[in-house]
Design goal:
- The structure holds 2 protein chains of 2 kinds.
- The longest helix of chain A is centred in the middle third of the chain and has 19 residues.
- Chain A is of the alpha/beta class.
- In chain B, helix 3 packs across helix 11 and helix 8 packs across helix 10.
- Chain B is globular and about 70 Å long.
- Chain B is an all-alpha fold.
- In chain B, strand 2 and strand 3 form a beta hairpin.
- The chains are: A alpha/beta, B mainly alpha.
- At the A-B interface, helix 3, helix 4, helix 5 and helix 6 of A face helix 7, helix 8, helix 9 and helix 10 of B.
């Protein structure tokens, strides 16, 4: 599958230019409340296939809530979500995963007691089909399945350049590497859409550059659609195709990086106004 | 032969995924099994089997089952004694009510009865976590205590409330002598330990650990929390149920509900915590610590020829045993299994520091 993707990517880049396709995720008039607190108010935007779509905004603007709505952790009180043209009813997070949506978290949410290898292997759980009894006996088919998936996981480990720590429990890794492992776990599911919640928070310049490279490579090689939350404006403006700006749970800007950069309301939200 | 990994290269993922990837470990475990299966049955005394090895093996099996639930899946349970009781009484009923029921079939059916009850009492885990779940599983304990005391059908209307089994045999071989009982327990424990290890190193084991470490992230990558938690309850209570059957049939022979009281649940939980959460080896360490150590401590004054009264000895044993629990938990809160693996890590490089 991954090899096919690489072949497709090669074809696409041979054909010349980016391959941004149809709208695959359409959010219409989403409102989310926690009791009396309005986290999101009447937000609409869409995501096209293969694009890098950033969500920016000041702290508490509702960016993470937006991601949680997309992958089914939160259920909006109002609004419609269309994924691949189909309206999504109330759903559980694991159903979003089966539809090909993977994500990373703002505060790293790795499985701390497990090794890097096991964390990424867990990312492939939806693709493993053995039943309990087969696993208890660990005979033939199960072992073959483990090895087949291990090969895929090793590809991801190579891609993210974390070979040297594959057997280390993730709790012992430095922060930057943990972020990388979390990306690896999300990639292991071979998602069509990847939600990244501040993948570069707290990193130094080199680590940010590495992470940018991985994100661009994922987008380019595997054709994965990426929805990105990030505070580093340099990064956002450089790598995004389109940017949506939230402030106090409302959408105040949407468009190409340049449009957003010059948007009056966005400037006001970030820099404040003189009275 | 030094404990070294040097020069042992793995050329395939299959070689890397072995249970014991290092040659020296394989030799050691082979030697241990040879001692357990051949040397001990030849030279062990009856006291050794009855008082030490058989209880050790059976409680290690129960701790193993509990460790899957608590150590691997992170769901605290105080109902272990109850699930053992369900296994024991379940197997007893299958044995006395169905003519010609073989022992192994009765044992597995007892385990399945425990599975059903375990899953039933595992349902609250879908909504509550941690200490609250522990309290909910306590209900299982009180419920089975009551059921096996009051509902006389379960005890085959025995007037004293106590039930017993006799004339056990496997495939025509009688399980009467201490050695045969010991060997039977040993085989069962080895088989279940291997299967448990296989489960924990394959997909379901990773799902359990994912739920334990970060349940929201687990759900987001496609793990169904209900499936993962309830399979952990099912597998765990199956093994605990089988251990209950062995405890009742092989170790006790005749028993009443008090044999599976809440004390037993606590004892097993302590074994798992002291031995090491999330480790198959830990269950054996924990059982050895809790069962064997007090017996050994008890005999030290006698061996050294120090004249102490039995009362003084037993008080001393309690004090030293308590102090050791505190000591080990301070040295390594993750249990003896962790201490063991740290030791092995250090030994790989010894005598060099890095």
């Amino acid at each position: 599958m991954m090899m096919n993707d690489i072949a497709n990517a090669a074809e696409a880049s041979a054909a010349g230019g980016r391959r941004i396709g149809e709208v695959i995720l359409d959010l219409q008039n989403i409102s989310l409340r926690f009791g009396g607190v309005k986290a999101l108010t009447d937000i609409s935007f869409n995501v096209r296939e293969h694009e890098i779509r950033s969500i920016i905004g000041p702290n508490g603007a509702g960016k993470s809530s937006m991601l949680n709505v997309i992958n089914g952790v939160y259920h909006p009180q109002e609004g419609r979500i269309l994924f691949h043209g189909q309206e999504r009813k109330k759903m559980e997070p694991h159903m979003a995963a089966t539809q090909g949506i993977a994500r990373t978290f703002q505060n790293i949410a790795l499985f701390k007691g497990m090794s890097v290898l096991d964390n990424i292997m867990t990312g492939r759980n939806l693709k493993m089909k053995s039943n309990l009894l087969q696993m208890a006996l660990y005979w033939g088919a199960v072992q073959k399945e483990e090895i087949a998936h291990r090969e895929k996981v090793e590809e991801i480990i190579d891609f993210l350049e974390i070979q040297s720590v594959r057997k280390t429990p993730v709790g012992q890794l430095p922060y930057g590497l943990q972020k990388r492992v979390e990306l690896g776990r999300a990639l292991a599911a071979e998602p069509t859409m990847l939600l990244l919640d501040e993948p570069m928070a707290g990193m130094n310049v080199e680590e940010k550059q590495d992470m940018c490279r991985f994100i661009l490579d994922v987008n380019d090689q595997f054709g994965t659609t990426i929805v990105l939350i990030e505070h580093d404006m340099g990064v956002v403006m450089d790598i995004s195709d389109r940017v949506v700006v939230l402030d106090y749970g409302k959408k105040i800007g949407d468009g190409a990086p340049d449009e957003v950069r010059n948007n009056e309301e966005v400037i006001r939200a970030y820099l404040g106004t003189s009275h | 032969m030094l404990y070294r990994e040097n020069g042992q290269f793995k050329a395939s993922y299959a070689a890397d995924q072995q249970i014991f990837p290092i040659l020296q470990d394989r030799v050691a475990i082979g030697a241990l099994l040879a001692i357990a299966f051949i040397v001990l049955p030849l030279f062990g005394s009856e006291y050794l089997f009855r008082a030490i090895l058989i209880p050790f093996l059976i409680l290690a099996l129960a701790a193993l089952g509990l460790n899957i639930l608590v150590g691997y899946c992170g769901q605290i349970s105080l109902g272990t004694g109850a699930f053992m009781a369900v296994g024991a009484y379940g197997a007893y009923n299958f044995l006395v009510r169905i003519d010609g029921m073989p022992l192994i079939a009765a044992m597995l059916l007892g385990g399945l009865s425990a599975t059903v009850i375990g899953v039933l009492f595992g349902i609250p885990s879908l909504r509550i976590k941690g200490l609250y779940l522990a309290v909910a599983t306590l209900a299982a304990q009180f419920f089975t205590d009551w059921a096996f005391l009051r509902i006389s059908w379960f005890t085959n209307n025995s007037s004293s409330g106590s039930v017993s089994v006799a004339g056990l045999n496997v495939l025509g071989l009688p399980i009467e002598s201490p050695v045969s009982k010991y060997l039977f327990c040993l085989v069962v424990v080895c088989v279940f330990a291997l299967m448990a290890k296989n489960l924990t190193r394959s997909a379901i084991g990773r799902q359990w650990m994912a739920i334990r470490d970060m349940d929201v992230a687990a759900a987001v990558i496609g793990i169904r929390p209900m499936y993962a938690k309830l399979t952990a309850f099912a597998v765990s209570s199956f093994i605990v149920g089988v251990a209950g059957v062995l405890w009742a049939f092989i170790h006790l022979g005749a028993w009443e509900p008090a044999a599976f009281s809440i004390d037993r649940s606590f004892q097993l939980l302590f074994m798992v915590i002291i031995g090491g959460l999330g480790s198959i080896m830990g269950a054996f360490f924990g059982a050895a610590f809790i069962i064997v150590l007090p017996i050994l401590l008890d005999q030290i004054p006698q061996l050294l020829g120090i004249p102490l009264s039995t009362a003084t000895t037993s008080h001393l044993v309690h004090m030293i045993f308590g102090a050791l629990i505190v000591f080990f938990l301070i040295v390594e809160p993750h249990g003896l299994a962790k201490l063991w693996s740290i030791g092995k890590q250090k030994l790989r490089l010894w005598p060099f520091p890095h």
